[in-house]
Design goal:
This protein has 81 residues and is an alpha+beta fold. It contains 2 helices and 2 strands.
Length: 81
């Protein structure tokens, strides 16, 4: 009876693990298609950002700079209170 339960648990968790691996590989390929261009010429492989990926990084950098500047300005203006 114990071996039967062990087999059932192994079967269930193995299915979940395979589902997770399949989902992860799908998400990875989706993200690589959007953000990365892979050039496999010869023995070297180079990864380059797509135009969309570059724009995302630029806007993320600007948003980070604005957010940090806002925090610093709030801290500096609160020193006199």
């Amino acid at each position: 009876m114990g071996s039967l339960l062990t087999e059932i648990v192994t079967l269930l968790t193995g299915g979940i693990a395979q589902f997770g691996e399949g989902l992860a590989s799908g998400i990875i390929s989706f993200v690589e298609d959007i953000f990365v261009v892979v050039d496999s010429s010869g023995s070297t492989t180079t990864y380059k950002l797509t135009t969309f990926g570059g724009l995302v990084i630029i806007f993320a950098g600007v948003a980070l700079a604005v957010g940090i500047t806002r925090l610093i300005m709030n801290y500096v203006t609160s020193l006199g209170k």
